[in-house]
Design goal:
single chain, mainly alpha, three-stranded antiparallel beta sheet, 46% helix, 11% strand
């Protein structure tokens, strides 16, 4: 699924970098948008290759990453 919140102005590249440090991989999808500014704040979270027992913990780490970047 794709997440985006342009109001907070958190770039997907920043979120991806910090999430990676926590062991969570997300995919920036800026190249999928014809208007770069629209896609800068969107990213994709894929869970089909993740063991079901790890998904919730990964989403918690991603949430904490975003909270810390927004502070």
């Amino acid at each position: 699924f794709v997440l985006s919140d342009q109001k907070k102005r958190l770039r997907a590249s920043e979120i991806a970098e910090k999430a990676r440090e926590r062991g969570v991989i997300i995919e920036e999808i800026t190249p999928c948008y014809s208007v770069r500014e629209t896609g800068e704040y969107a990213f994709r979270v894929g869970v089909s290759a993740i063991h079901p027992l790890l998904i919730e913990a990964g989403l918690r780490e991603l949430k904490q990453t975003i909270i810390e970047l927004d502070a």
